[in-house]
Specification:
Largest sheet: 7 strands, mixed
Radius of gyration: 27 Å
Strand order of the largest sheet: 15-16-17-18-22-23-26
Shape: globular
Distance between the termini: 73 Å
Helix content: 25-40%
Number of strands: 26
Oligomer: single chain
Length: 527
């Protein structure tokens, strides 16, 4: 830390002395005199010691949190804890698997673990148990010490950003070395002699999603995440043997060197271009540049500041511009967000009053010290009981929220909703209500969340005693008040979209192309 000398300047008939411990710290004013000089010395000492302490603290990283191994007994004990806590705390642990089947699966995982494993390898097996519950809101993340240290550890990873065109094909999106061994668009057939279909199948076993859905797993592995999940399922290695099929149809076997995880800083680019009318940090209201009759509400997350103002201004704009007769709600890669903000949007689109229902086990779980959560989360369940429409149903404390539609500026034109595998949680709730209660047309891909509901609202954490890994468990089950069958799958689009590698390389937006095509068909039919 740079220490600046005292600076004096005249202030009336007195002098002010400023002690600056850093150019970024606020300046302190001290008047002359013995007391002032003493205080200046104290402040100088405090600044200096606090700086040294913070520097020492910032350098104290426990790298053994990443490299240490666990004994078989330690891992078996933690797997038992995971099973016990899931059964005890999860709001609906046996929706997709029976208690007996889950227990047998845990025993099978324990049999596979017959030697010491590192933290990342242990979590690969432990996450398979979490995945069996079929809840994308339930996860097992590393310990705080691991997350603090991992960025300082040089791990050798697979040097490719990837595209997945369906659930078992991988293509090179970007090769991260300067040589030209691999090219954009090459299809990866095998890595270290293992077929890609087998690799993905193994990775998917440790990737939680809702129900039987796999599109959430596929979309989440796109780009840079694949190499780390691959390393968890197999190994970090200094080089990889890769069998590829080039765009020209040539089969090639190549040896590619690894990429340092410390140097792995590439960020994907967003090439979407539209005329933006209103926006906040999570959503944009814009007009399609290719068709002025189409507006787009592109929502990355139901969050951000001044959300209600954004909704109010956007739908007021649509009301004042009746020539805009179609609206697309783009929920691709929308992982969810605030329930109240999602419902606030729905009130401008759903023509009749609708209800939103959620509940949890009839117990005192929010005050259980075994489940870690902030004070705000502990208080929130109590506040739910202040809502008048609440009672016990099916052995759950259940709450109903009733939402009334907006009559002023409500949009009455043609509505489209765009989804993909990363449309999850609250974005699936809104998609379901728009499809079944606002007659919206869905375009894209099966959603990551199931069409009947999911587990969400509030979550707590169980910290495993040996590894420190954090098991995140939701408290509530959200049931859509829509009479649809429980297929254990996501919400299916009316018009499915499947990308080819050429579509991806050309940067096409097939969902928007489909919407424009449908608009042209509707326009021709009304002439």
């Amino acid at each position: 830390m740079k220490i600046y000398p005292p600076v004096q300047y005249a202030k009336g008939t007195k002098f002010c002395t400023f002690i600056r411990a850093s150019s970024m710290l606020p300046v302190k004013c001290i008047y002359p005199g013995a007391f002032a000089m003493k205080m200046a010395g104290i402040l100088f000492f405090l600044f200096l010691t606090s700086s040294l302490f913070s520097q020492k603290k910032s350098k104290k990283i426990d790298r053994t949190a990443v490299t240490r191994t666990y004994t078989v007994a330690e891992m078996h004990k933690e797997l038992d804890i995971i099973e016990k806590k899931l059964c005890k705390y999860h709001p609906d642990p046996f929706h997709y698997i029976s208690r007996d089947s889950l227990h047998l699966f845990v025993q099978g995982i324990k049999q596979e673990i017959n030697a010491p494993l590192t933290d990342i390898k242990f979590r690969f097996y432990a996450r398979q148990i979490v995945t069996k519950v079929g809840c994308g809101h339930t996860s097992l993340i590393p310990s705080k010490a691991y997350m603090k240290a991992v960025d300082s550890i040089d791990r050798q990873v697979f040097p490719v950003d990837v595209w997945l065109t369906d659930t078992n094909r991988i293509f090179v999106k970007a090769y991260l070395h300067k040589d030209s061994i691999l090219h954009r668009g090459d299809e990866i057939l095998r890595i270290n002699q293992v077929p890609v279909a087998d690799i993905l199948k193994r990775i998917y076993t440790s990737f939680p999603s809702d129900g039987l859905n796999e599109t959430y797993k596929k979309q989440s592995l796109q780009s840079d995440r694949f190499r780390y999940f691959y390393a968890a399922a197999y190994e970090f290695d200094t080089a990889y043997t890769v069998d590829v099929m080039t765009l020209k149809g040539e089969l090639r076997t190549l040896k590619v060197r690894s990429l340092s995880s410390i140097a792995d800083t590439l960020k994907p680019k967003n090439n979407k271009r539209y005329t933006i009318i209103y926006k906040n940090t999570k959503a944009q209201f814009k007009i399609d540049e290719k068709d002025p009759h189409l507006a787009i509400l592109d929502i990355n997350n139901f969050g951000g500041k001044k959300w209600r103002k954004l909704m109010r201004m956007s739908f007021r704009y649509l009301h004042k511009h009746p020539e805009i007769n179609s609206l697309a709600i783009d929920l691709r890669d929308n992982g969810g967000g605030s329930v109240s903000k999602g419902n606030a949007m729905l009130t401008y689109l759903v023509p009749k009053a609708f209800t939103f229902r959620f509940g949890r086990k009839a117990n005192l779980l929010p005050i259980n010290p075994g489940l870690k959560m902030g004070p705000g989360i502990r208080i929130t369940p109590v506040s739910f009981f202040l809502y008048p429409v609440s009672w016990v149903k099916d052995r759950k404390w259940t709450h109903w929220f009733i939402k009334m539609p907006k009559h002023k500026n409500r949009f009455k034109g043609q509505l489209y909703v765009i989804t993909n595998g990363r449309s999850f949680s609250m974005s699936v709730v809104t998609s379901s209500y728009l499809k079944y209660k606002a007659n919206a047309t869905l375009i894209g891909e099966e959603t990551g969340g199931t069409q009947c509901g999911s587990n969400a609202m509030l979550s707590g954490k169980v910290v495993l005693p040996t590894s420190g890994a954090q098991l995140t468990i939701p408290l509530y089950r959200i049931d859509h008040t829509i009479p649809v069958p429980d297929t254990k799958r996501g919400l299916m689009p009316d018009y499915p979209v499947q990308y080819t590698i050429l579509d991806l390389m050309q940067g096409r937006d097939l969902e928007m192309e489909k919407i424009r095509s449908l608009m042209r068909q509707d326009s021709s039919a009304t002439r």
